[in-house]
Amino acid sequence: MTIKGIAIYKGQQIKIPAVVLLGLVGLVLGSYFAVNLRADKVAHLAMSLVFLLAALSNLWDRRTQLQLGSNTLSLGLGTCIVGSILYQGFRPPTGLYLGFAPFVAAIGIMLLASGYQALGQYRTELLILFCLGLPKLLLKFLPDISPVTAQFSTYLLWYSGFSVRLTDNLIQLPDGAVRVVPSCSGLNLMTYMLAITVIFLLMFPLPTAAKIIAPIVAVTLGFFVNGIRVAMLALLSTQNNPALFDYWHSNDGALLFVMLTVLLFGLFCGWIVHQAQLNPPE
User: Fold this and answer.
1) What is the pTM of this model?
2) How confident is the model at residue 279 (pLDDT cuts 50, 70, 90)?
3) Widest Cα–Cα separation across the chain
4) Are 233 and 253 in contact (CB under 8 A)?
5) What average pLDDT does the structure give for the chain?
6) pLDDT-based confidence at 208, cuts 50/70/90?
């Protein structure tokens, strides 16, 4: 029986039309994007797109294999979850919301689509979306690496021929200086690159050696590219151009370095996959 075109009952099973589910996905994503833009989290939004596209792509590839059909309990629970995520979108965002809103909303939509009994078929997509929020949790427990970042950036400048000195995380040049604080240490980018590695390992069958090397390369790239950014900011501090320094220090400037890091890791992943295809395991 059809009720206002929303749900079709077949025995105890309730099937929601795909167009309604897609509409909910679009509504949740629109709210999530708006929250990120309102909070000026452009770099985080760009990183979120990587995880969201990976999850949606994997789900689309398996669309014909999905078990659809929910029940009353799952419909009620799913509606409450999606509604709460949409409601939180109107409130000042927190780090945990920005990290885990897609994951929690996905659980709600999957409950509406398939019920709690069939949530296991979405485990890959849920793991990908959980990894989007994982850095927000890890950062609370990881040590501060800003002294290491400051030292690395100082070495980069020194090897490049600049007269530079490091004092208590303060990188000093003859006409300017920058202090490396925890938020600029690169730890945030490193944890996100580690999370992106999970996507890579889930979506491509790889030999054991590649599975070990990929996380190391991802974290190293995050640290190295951020170190270059800090060194560049130190050089910009010597110029009489505050607007230029503020741009590269802002989220917009950071976004370019995030994209560069993801691009470099993507090239590495492409090379790894190519090598794995040339030398398949016995």
Assistant:
1) 0.81
2) low
3) 78
4) no
5) 86
6) confident
